[in-house]
Structure formats: C-alpha cells, structure tokens
Amino acid sequence: MDITIKDVALKANVSIATVSRVLNQSKPVSKAVRERVLEVVEELGFNPNPVARTLIMKESRLIGVLIPGIENMFISIFVQAIEEELFKHNYTTLLCNTNRDLDVELHYLKLLKEKYVDGVVLLTSAPKPKQIQFFENHAVPVVFASHTDQEGRFSCINIDDYQATYDATRYLIQLGHRKIAFFGGPRVYVQIVRRLAGYKQALADYGIEYDEKLIYEQDYDIESGYESGMKLFRQEDRPTAICCVSDMVAIGAIRAADDSGLRVPEDISVMGFDDIPIAKAYRPGITTVRQPVYELGVQAAQMLLKQIREKEDYVPEVKLLPHEIIVRGSCMTVKG
Amino acid sequence: MDITIKDVALKANVSIATVSRVLNQSKPVSKAVRERVLEVVEELGFNPNPVARTLIMKESRLIGVLIPGIENMFISIFVQAIEEELFKHNYTTLLCNTNRDLDVELHYLKLLKEKYVDGVVLLTSAPKPKQIQFFENHAVPVVFASHTDQEGRFSCINIDDYQATYDATRYLIQLGHRKIAFFGGPRVYVQIVRRLAGYKQALADYGIEYDEKLIYEQDYDIESGYESGMKLFRQEDRPTAICCVSDMVAIGAIRAADDSGLRVPEDISVMGFDDIPIAKAYRPGITTVRQPVYELGVQAAQMLLKQIREKEDYVPEVKLLPHEIIVRGSCMTVKG
DNA sequence: CTGTTAGCGCTTTCAT
DNA sequence: ATGAAAGCGCTAACAG
C-alpha cells in the first residue's frame, strides 16, 4: 500500500521524525523545512497510515454506536444524526446492532475496546452491571442515550421520560378520558418504568384509579401495537384512549382498531410517541409526544466529543432535551 | 492496555513466535507446547490486538457500508441485514452516510482504504467514474446494491428494476387505468432510468401513449410524494393511478390525495414500492412491489465475504432477487 | 531545531 | 518444532 512517511522523508531530505513533527505540529520545525516537507507531502499525495498511528496513540477516530435494532425510525434518525455530527469532526461510526442481546452487547464492547475506539454511544435499556463494570475498568468515554443515570456516573442524553408521559396522559385526561390504556415496552427497561410512573402520577393527580389490566407490555414496533390493540379491543368495557410508547406502536394500534371496526379518534383516541416523519403523514395525523430525535443524536455526539477532548477533567453530565405534545388528529374529546 | 503476546510467551516459557503460531495455526506446534500456550492464553484472558495485526496483515475485519441516508426504512432494514450477517462472520460494520454527496463518498472511500477495510457495500446511484477508478486502483472487494452493472466489472445485488416496474404498471393497466402517473426519483439514478423504462414499455405494450407530464422527479421520501401529489392533483384531467418509487412516496401521495379531498383508492389508485412494514399497516394497506429487502442485505454481505475469501479467483457476479406484487387496498379498478 | 533510536503488538522469515 | 530477529508505519523520548 503505497507511500509512507519514509518516502516523504527521503524525498525531502529530512528524517522521518521531522516529517511526523510537521504533520502533527508536535514540535517546532523551521519554516523552510516545514514548507519543503509539506510540498513533498502534497506532491506524493501522502496520507499517514491511521492504523500505525492507532497502534501507538491508542486512538482510532472511530466511535462505536450500539443500538438494539433499526426497526424503529427513531433509531435510524438518531444514528444518522450521530454519524453526520461525527463526520464533521472526522470520526467514523462503527455500527453495532445488539438485537437486545446482552451477550452480543458485551461482545461488541470488548471488540470496540480492542479496536481502540475513542468512545461509544449506547442506546440500550439501563446500563447493566456488566456494562458498568466494563466502563469503569476501561475508562472509555461513553454516553448513554434514552436513559437517565441517577447516580451521576455516566453521561446521558435523553428527554424527561417521566414528565413527557405525564404530559401525554394529562392531555388525554383533559380531553375527558378516564379509562386510558398504556401500550409500553417490557418493564425491564428503565425508560418504560419511568414512563409508566409518569402515567400513573397523572392518573393519580386527576383522581383516576390505576388499573393494571390496562397496561400492555410488548415492544416498540408496529406489530406490538397491533397485537396489544387486538387484545384490548376484544375486552368489554374498553378504554377510550391509548397512550403508546412509540408512533410505530400507535400505528399498529390504529390498524387494530380499524380491523376491529373502531374509528380513530371517534371511538378511540390513540397517542403516539417520538414524532417520526410518518406520524405527520399518517391519516389521521398522529397526536404524539415529540422527541427532538435528530438533536438528541447530535448532542450525544457532541457530549462524547467533549468527553474525549477533556479526558480526566470531564465531569459526566445528564442532558434532558425538551419534549412537546404535537396535536394532530388521532385524539379527540371523549364522546358523551 | 493490558496483556500482550509477550506476557503469554513469558508465562508459557516459549517465544512469542510460538504463541503466534498456535493462535493462528500458521505452523505446526507440538501438542504439549500448544496446550500449555492455550492454557496460559485462557488463564490470562489474552486477546490478540487486532490493530497490530491489521498493520501487518493489511486486513481489519471491518466492512464499510456506504449509504445515501437513512430516511427511508428500506435502507435501515438493508443495513441491519448486512450488519447481522457480517456479525455472524466476525466482521464489523463501518457505517458511512454520504448524503448523496460525491465528495463525501470519495472521502469515505479513501478513509476506508486507509483503515484497511476488507470490503465495502455501496448503495448509491450508479458507480461514477471516480469510484470505478478507485476500485480498479485499489482492488478492494466491493458489491453494489440496488444497481445492476451491465459491464460485468462489479458484483451487484438487486432486483430487476425494469421488470418490477413493468409488472407494477401492467397491474395498474389491467385494473383499467390508462392514465398513470410516475412518481420517481431523480433521473441521474440508473435505478430510476431502468424503472422508467419498465413503465414506458408496459404502457407501450398496452397501446397507451407515454406522457412526459405525468412523470415527477423527486426523492424517495414522504415529503417528495406529498409534494408531487399536491402538484398533480391541482391539474385538471388528473390520472386515475400513480406508480411510486417507494412506499414512503406512496404514503406522501396518499396524504396529498387526502388533503385534496380525493379518496384512495376510490378516486385514485396508489402503488408503492419496497413493501416496508408500514405498507402493510397503513390504511388502506398499500399495494406495492415487494423487494426482499432483508435478503438483499444478507446476500450483499455474503457476496462480499465470498469475494474476500476467493480474492483474485473471484468472478464478479450480478444477482437479481425476485420481486412480487403485493395486493392490498390502495389500488382498485378504475371507476366507470 | 533536527536526527537517531526505541518501541506500539503482532507476523513471519531465517536459522537452528 | 522452536527461537531470534526483522519489520508493518508511525510517534516520542533522547541526544545533540
């Protein structure tokens, strides 16, 4: 593979150390020499071999991004945002799909460390003990996304899951709904736990009794929403509203309503979460809790970059971005 | 960073060369020694440093995946498929979003080469001259996706764009439609050119005149479909059907119809492309041309792996996977 | 300011 | 079958 630092040194009549110095500006070099070197570099089209560099410097300009899957547009956009932001700073994204498998996650973490990635963005449930241990042992910069670390050990980027779901539920209540189902993900996710807490609190604040039977624990995708919906609509005395954990789930639920002969929003209100592009295009438009998805990704990248820059001086930060209820057509006042 | 081959050699009382040999099985080692080394490796939890290895071997177990963006679910699923297939074979995915910018593309290609990636999957329009030159100069394994190379220089994985669009158009014609709009992407993409050719041929075969005014060139996303739709529906003497370049475009078009007081499919039939999950869940279900998206990704990965394995012996192959018209609710026979 | 030299952690001749 | 030693391409003391 072509042309090395040696070739440059030779042609410029200097030592390789000098070439290295002008390229990295690590030590002063006389103007004359610097210019000659730069010229030769240009002329030969020399590019330092990043792998050799990594071996010494223990840094790779690679960032690992661990995600649970890409079936949800939220994640696609999030990843795209990270990739674009990192690209600006000359970092490249190593995409690792863990499929929610802890072993795969750990495997990837180990692999990333060996490749000397400069940092990792983790989009998984809560940091599990093994992960925590990993990051404490190896001191690789990390930011957790869609998670809020209470103990201040790790940097996090997220919205306020609790408040967002509280707001969503309250919105439904203010529309007159008293019986509101919750289509959530598995409760092993702290995200779900916190959202559920927001939901419960809203109910409590408005004197509505919490009913465990209205809680459906599935996943974040269309299929889950559909299945939960079909199950729910078979029950008698069904709710007048559903609070969903994602827009995809909402879409599944709406479809299930359709297949059950129910109209949205006339017979049942459905509230989404995320506000991915499809939420706006859907008919009816999906009333939803907007997350600033792209911004979340950008900030995840920036926090990581900051962490890399500041090293030991860096103090973990938890950043909560604002959410917003976007009113469209999938929710309405409950019929008298 | 921890434990190296030296530590193992020391503890096992052998030379580092021997350790290397048992780990790579590159030369015979006596059973006794081998076992002892393996024991120490186990005991110390030694992992060869892949970066040092890359520096010598010029291979990284990294695969670059270049995509134009992730706003379309087709790409997300495609990328996920590649990632999962590569993971099985111990390769990791470097995700590069080019945003359709040729310079970014070239930049990434250069970067990937420097990182000694073992291969790259390219999901972009046609191979442009500079890319072709790149791959010819550097001999890095590559497979083009969603593109069919006529000249047999590069491996490709795709469906038959021409035939697929021909079939879609014919389906619409057989439903009685004579005036069919085409919502496509920019014609700089060979993919679009070939699809357009299929569309035209179908019209011709059924004695329908081709009308340039019915062709809309935008992008693959919802917004594009919506804009094209709004424009189209303002015209008088509007078509009775639309043939779209993606399901997202179809969704945008349906929404536009809705906003224009048109019903789908009663007033206008809309045909999608891809069959992403949302197509099934949408109301009405979107009649569409199914691409085996996931399978496309898996095969892209496999072709690349084969290419890496066989090196010079490898003969570029063009693989076309079958498509299928999925009939749902967004298209119907033309009225009266 | 500049050159010489010793590695980073590994693979691979070349001897033995 | 095994070890010593020479690099892969680069950075960073260490001398001058």
Automatic annotation (TrEMBL), chains A, B:
PROSITE patterns hit by this protein: HTH_LACI_1 (PS00356), HTH_LACI_2 (PS50932)
GO molecular function, one term: DNA-binding transcription factor activity
Name of protein: HTH lacI-type domain-containing protein
Domain HTH lacI-type as annotated: residue spans: 3-57
CDD domains given in the database record: HTH_LacI, PBP1_LacI_sugar_binding-like
SMART domains xref list: HTH_LACI (SM00354)
SUPFAM superfamilies linked: lambda repressor-like DNA-binding domains (SSF47413), Periplasmic binding protein-like I (SSF53822)
